[in-house]
Amino acid sequence: MSSEEPRPDGRYEEQRRHLPEDSMPSGGVNAPVPVAAEATPVVDPRLIVRQEGVKGYLGEFRRRIGSGELGSLPVIVALVVIWAVFGSLNSSFLSAQNLSNLSQQIVGTGLIAVGVVFVLLLGEIDLSVGSVSGLCAAIFAVLDVTHGVNQWVALLCAVLGGAAVGLVQGFFFARVGVPAFVVTLAGNLGWNGLMLQVLGSSGTVNLSGKDIVSRLYSTIYGQQVAAYGLATAGVALFLGASLVDAGRRRRAGVPSRPVTDIALRTVLLAVVAYLAAYTLNQYKGLPLALLVFLVFIVVLEFVLRRTTYGRKVFALGGNIEGARRAGISVPWTRMTVFMICSTMAAVGGLFLAAQIQSASQTSGGGNLLMNAIAAAVIGGTSLFGGRGSTWSALLGALVIGSIQSGMNIEGLSNAIQFMITGAVLLAAVVIDSLARRTQKAAGRA
Q1: Are 135 and 198 in contact (CB under 8 A)?
Q2: Rounded mean pLDDT of 55-62?
Q3: Which residues cross the membrane (predicted)?
Q4: Which of 13, 17, 77, 181 is least surrounded by CB atoms within 10 angstroms?
């Protein structure tokens, strides 16, 4: 053996001396000992599914349902049933005018629900979003109307006010260790009191209708190209992102979606997008408020799914101790999540103020808090953390808004609306609990 060749250690030499002759590798003692037989390559089951075509996808669909991986299926089914029921009771429910108005009315609550999704992903809750939305609406109204501050400055102060609230609450939760339920419950009371203080003795500040917030809510693009252009941009963005992701995965040597799969998903999205655009154009056109809502959903969904920060949020919701041992700064992530939630509450509160053209003592009150949390949960975000999407806010807000709109058309009382909304929320939580139990039984949780 030359001096350049690596010498085996003593343990390895001793093991080779005791090998029987018939097991000694050819070439003598100095020949390398084979460690194991050549391993059989493991085939990813997703590749088998895609190679089997339609049959494989149906089998995969049944497997996912049987193992509790329901995704957005329950809420989509619920939405179809709600629309079918109310559409059969009154044809005006599915009219272009009612659906267009519905797309505007859900924006305020939906934006708040987007922030709630982030907190729920941690397995926590924020009970202050209603009061925060009212406080930030009051800040904007008082600065803009009462004190004549520049509209953009007033808007920035209101949004930053929401972020500051989230920072304070996140600090007590993440650094001091006070449970989020207690911190935000106290905030629900405290921020509501601060809102009353900001509004002053009048108790109500009416917006001019020409301010930036009112224009964001009330502006509707009447040109048909606006709605169809948004649909086209959304489909093209989805197709481009899917192709880029598939190419990246192929270069990395990991399973990726085949082109036929991407094409099918793109076609389904295009059908939904262009049908929605057609419906909006049958009334007035594309509401700017809906466009803003969709932008927030897409951007924040990208943050959750495609950034390191988003993976940290999911990691904390799935296993906080594992996330801590992986080097994730748990306090910092928790604080920023509560800041995002309160910031979205501020944005949603501004749209709600624009909807009624005022900020008053009742802003952020009523059933707003419950509707925002219910929208996130009904849309598919788990109360137990680690599973959810910003699209849940849109789906859940559509369900709640559709129930309210349909019952208003039928002339039913608020009492009936509350009971049915509560029943839908309970059903969503039950489905989530059963799905988690099924996933654990199947070894996928």
Answers
A1: yes
A2: 61
A3: 70-90, 102-122, 129-146, 152-173, 180-200, 220-241, 262-280, 286-304, 335-356, 368-384, 391-409, 415-435
A4: 17
Average pLDDT, the chain: 85
- Residue 55 tokens, joined: 């049959």
Tell me if 377 sits within 8 A of 425, measured CB to CB.
Answer: yes
Phi and psi at residue 317, to the nearest 5°: -70, -30
Distance CA 106, CA 413 (A): 20
CA–CA separation, 288 and 221 (whole Å): 7
Question: Mean pLDDT throughout 425-443?
Answer: 75
Q: How far apart are CA 399 and CA 406, in angstroms?
A: 11
Closest CA to 382 of 315, 438, 317: 317
Decide: 315 and 323 in contact? Cβ < 8 Å. Answer: yes
For residue 385, the one-letter residue type is G
Contacts of 233 (CB under 8 A, 6+ apart): none
Residue 66 CB: number of other CB atoms within 10 A?
Answer: 10
DSSP letters, 130-171, are HHHHHHHHHHHHIIIIIS---HHHHHHHHHHHHHHHHHHHHH
How far is the C-alpha of 289 from the C-alpha of 207, rounded, in Å? 17
Give just the sign of the alpha carbon dihedral 197, 201, 203, 205.
negative
Q: Would you report the helix, strand and coil content of the chain in percent, each value rounded to 5?
A: 70, 0, 25
Q: What is the pLDDT of residues 322-354, one digit of tens each?
A: 889 988 999 999 999 999 999 999 999 999 999
Return phi, psi of residue 362, to 5°: -95, 0
Residue for token pair 């957005």: 72
Q: Is residue 440 classed as helix, strand or coil in its secondary structure?
A: helix
State which fold the 78-220+287-432 domain adopts: ABC transporter involved in vitamin B12 uptake, BtuC (1.10.3470)
